[in-house]
Design brief:
With 143 residues, the protein is α+β, with helices and mostly antiparallel strands. It has a single domain, classed as NE0471 N-terminal domain-like (2-Layer Sandwich), CATH 3.30.2020.30. The protein has five helices and six strands, in the order H-E-E-E-H-H-E-E-E-H-H. The protein has a three-stranded antiparallel sheet. A three-stranded antiparallel sheet has the order 4-5-6. Strand 2 and strand 3 form a beta hairpin. The chain is globular. It starts with 10 loop residues before the first helix and ends with a helix. Keywords: Iron, Metal-binding. This is Gamma-butyrobetaine hydroxylase-like N-terminal domain-containing protein. It holds the Pfam family GBBH-like_N.
Length: 143
């Protein structure tokens, strides 16, 4: 009998995973108002139906891309969503344009999809994902 692919986790890890899997109340993941400040180049703000307010910069969102490739790369390097990949130290600093969406499109009634200025476009930012990675002081202390 092969045990490939089986991973044993501690009770603490199992409880944490269970808490992450817990569904949020429908009003907590239903936007009342969504503002994508594409022209200003600043970010996204969402007012949720439960009265909560969330805001993210475009740089934070790009570094928190939920696609499988970005997720796996963050997991391997131990980076949290929104944390930029460290740049290699070089003698000459080469300018890199800040992350900005070229296009933003709704995905059904459950998500946003960004096409970034670095041509990356495979991440779908669901309302639930965005609420779980809310950057407000209250949500950050809960995590």
């Amino acid at each position: 009998m092969s045990h490939e692919g089986i991973r044993f986790v501690s009770e603490e890890e199992a409880q944490r995973a269970s808490a992450e899997d817990a569904r949020l109340h429908v009003d907590a993941v239903t936007p009342a108002k969504v503002r994508v400040m594409k022209s200003e180049g600043t970010g996204v703000e969402i007012d949720w139906k439960d009265g909560h307010h969330s805001a993210w910069t475009f740089a934070w969102l790009r570094n928190a891309c939920p696609c499988a490739t970005c997720h796996d790369e963050r997991e391997k390097s131990g980076r949290a969503p929104g944390v930029a990949e460290p740049k290699a130290q070089t003698l000459l600093v080469i300018y890199e344009a800040p992350p900005r969406p070229v296009e933003v499109t709704p995905v059904g009634k459950y998500a946003l999809k960004f096409k970034w200025n670095d041509s990356h476009e495979s991440g779908i930012y669901s309302w639930e994902y965005l609420r779980r990675v809310c950057q407000c002081a209250i949500c950050k202390t809960k995590r």
